[in-house]
# Entry
Amino acid sequence: MAAKTKTGKCFLVGAGPGDLGLVTLRAKECIEQAGVIVYDYLSNPEMLKWAPETAEIIYAGKRAGAHTLTQDEINALLIEKARAGKQVVRLKGGDPFVFGRGAEEAQMLAAAHVPFVVVPGITSAIAGPAYAGIPVTHRGKNSHVTFFTGHENPEKSETSIDFRALAQLGGTQVMLMGVERIESIAREMLANGMRSDMPVALIRWATTGRQETLVGNLGNIAERVAEKEFAAPAVAVFGDVVTMRDELNWFEHQSLSGKRIVVTRSRAQAGVLSEQLRALGADVIELPTIRIEPPSDLRAFAELVQDAHAYDWIVFTSPNGVTAFFDLFYKLYDDTRELGGARIAAIGPATAQRIKDFHLKVDLQPEEFVAESIVREFRKQGGVENLRILLARAEKARDLLPKELSALGAIVDEGFAYRTVPETRDDSGARRRLLEEGADLITFTSSSTVENFLALGLSWPEKMQVASIGPVTSKTARDRGLTVAVEARRHDIPGLVDAVCKFFLGKIDDERR
Ligand code: SAH
# Structure
């Protein structure tokens, strides 16, 4: 008899308003453990990097007018995947139960007897105004807030918003959806007795580097929206609290506010650079350019790993090499001591750190992060004559290291631990954004980031300038025909961030110190 598959669970998860830092810990946990993720237009796709490699990621769309899946299809999909035993994460922008049909999805799951969990999120209705310097309540200005939708359900015969009641109620009123109907909405509000000098603010792409705010009053807001072609997604705030923005607008006044910057990265790398740029207000497009894959001949590498204890030295040249090595090692052995007396060398601090993460000591770490200096260090340590060395590295790496070590008399085995391939997927939509919206600047943190970006063969957005971490990277960029506009004085991430700020501001931002 075939075993019955245990039904999985569906997690209706609030993805917050856009800023990755505004995602709850629970939401992040759900993503990290997901089997299937169904996400929407308004949930920041960058959080998909927290998903396991094995997770199936499905874009449900819902850009106004450009539905990728219909609501019925989404419902059916959630049920089908959960019934197949998957942990299904349904990511919804903001809070799942504030508009956006999350409640309907929950009802449908309940009816289908699919177990579900709701993870509330920070709604754009509150976070949007907050990031525009508008508190939705203030003791001196109001004592209640109303959320309403400007998106009329066309199936309803009468209008679902009671504008007369809204006008009488006063307080702060926050509207989600419906920027495109602002003219008729403002007209209704005025017709029902709201003052024409009532302050109004519209905040689009709130809490992200793309945030823009438009301020006016009920009498002129429609005209301003038309004039600026101010488009969805936006939150609208009606009420006296809007004026507090003059005093409290904090987010839009940062050093890099309004600048769109491309950061090239591989999926697994920590986004330190992105984080620092975002913290200064930049709109960062994290563009994955490469992907780490197992080596073409995994078995050959596994044999070397199995014999690791027979070597005098194991040399690692990248954090990825360390990870690939130990992933295999612990598949073969369950005791670290199986490594025997092999000593460990690491090129570069990140590689050394990854080794320390495995609670192993790094015996040799050259000052400079280049192969040449590893050879020099070995020489200093009395040479390597007749010593057996295992070199764990990427396929197609430079030849120099094994040659030089062999020339010093070592017996060198090269182990190809992984290979890097161009990233062809666009899970986060970063590539689409870059092509549609362009950028002000692209950052390169190594020669390989230059090579990898160019290997994608994307057309170069007009006006996008180049920032490089140092002279070696700049040279590669120039050799490939690029013009380097910014070069960091200190060749590390903080140095690059400083240089980028200087470039845009003409000065270092003192506040940050
Ligand atoms: N559940 C969501 C709202 C879904 S309805 C929440 O709690 O935020 C979709 C509407 O939300 C959009 O039309 C827009 O009005 C608003 N919205 C969501 N994210 C936004 C953002 N980052 N900036 C501005 N408006 C946003």
